[in-house]
Design brief:
two-stranded antiparallel ribbon; mainly alpha
Amino acid sequence: MSQDDPGIDLETSLGYLLKEAASALRAAMEDVLRPLDMTITHYSCLELLAQRPGSSNSELARGAFVTRQSMNVLLQALERDGFVTRPSEAPVGKVLPAKLTPRGRRSLEQATAAVRSVEVRMLSGLSDADRAAALRILRSMVSSLMEGR
């Protein structure tokens, strides 16, 4: 880039602002999950399993935006610590479907309340109409970017 080419104006770049918002959201979520001895990926995995019981390692990895290898390590730890259970042998193929244990559900309830408090704080300055518009706009952005993949 030359000095005559200003590049992207970070003050008006929606992409930069989205990244900044994502970073602030992540930091706020880490702050409320840390006292629960939980990471965002740990929370995401439990939340996904609550909503999609029996999910495979690959499905959970996609949903939590991590690699299959990272999810497998996490699932092994969650299983060892009693948060999830998986069969010792795959009922079909190689997939070991994971399910929450009662301990996992209790842990998720606490984490969900903590994460919900962050989202409430994040949205506190928006009207209901603004929230609906933000959802619509963000979904449209994601859809537009996914079309080219």
